[in-house]
Specification:
Structural class: alpha/beta
Number of strands: 10
CATH topology of the largest domain: Rossmann fold
Order of helices and strands: EHEHHEHEHEHEHEHHEEEH
Strand order of the largest sheet: 2-1-3-4-5
Number of domains: 2
Radius of gyration: 18 Å
CATH class of the largest domain: Alpha Beta
CATH architecture of the largest domain: 3-Layer(aba) Sandwich
Shape: globular
Distance between the termini: 23 Å
Strand content: 15-25%
Largest sheet: 5 strands, parallel
CATH superfamily of the largest domain: NAD(P)-binding Rossmann-like Domain
Amino acid sequence: MPSTRIAIGGLGAIGRVLARKLADGLPGVELACAASGDKVRARSWLEDQKIDCPVVEFEEFPERADLAIECAPASLIDRICRPMLEAGKQVMVLSCGALLPRPELIELAKERGGAIIVPTGALLGLDAVGAANEGTIQSVRMITRKPPNGLAGAPHLVKNSISVEGLNEAKRVFAGTAREAAAGFPANVNVVAALSLAGIGPDRTTIEIWADPGVTRNCHTIEVEADSARFSLSIENVPSENPKTGKIVALSILALLRKMNAPLRVGT
């Protein structure tokens, strides 16, 4: 079978891991191109890593790739997704919180025969949530605890003059819906957006966000009450070079890419 050509949108902490792994070889996929807001820096890094990969504009992805992986700031989601979807191709979205106010992207995928894929990323149990949602889910609640520097600069904190500096105990900085959290913390809690999309939606999924100086990992707990099951799941993620995201995110993408072309696929 022909390989799936992959474009990487963004060469930050996650994009670099993907580029390195894809260049080393992954069955059924090949690195076709990459794009970055800083082309000079991107080319320099690729040359240092001896990765043969052209750096192009986001709008060139459809000419070169079958699947684009968005690893960029949420503000770039339209530039990455729209050209691919208009061409009837696939995009894998990490900044899935940015999908919530952009339902037109989902409609575009439907109209043109493209697809938006959201990987499990830093969370767990999305397969269980999706299965439970085939029945009736009464409630989905999430609690996130992050080291304060992993939340610093979030729009919700800036807008409400909430400081997370010099904390000596945990501080709850947000409580509300997944939709509100995605808007207030666009780089911090894409996990709750993914959870809401897998289950009962962004307006019924709730979350508490805590800045906790007592943790060194990004900690997420989800609690689900449904007619088929009641379950609680927790994960503690080691932060990547970017403290806002965990190392497991890039690995989740690689696992999904491997699964897409595997003769045995485990889990929904």
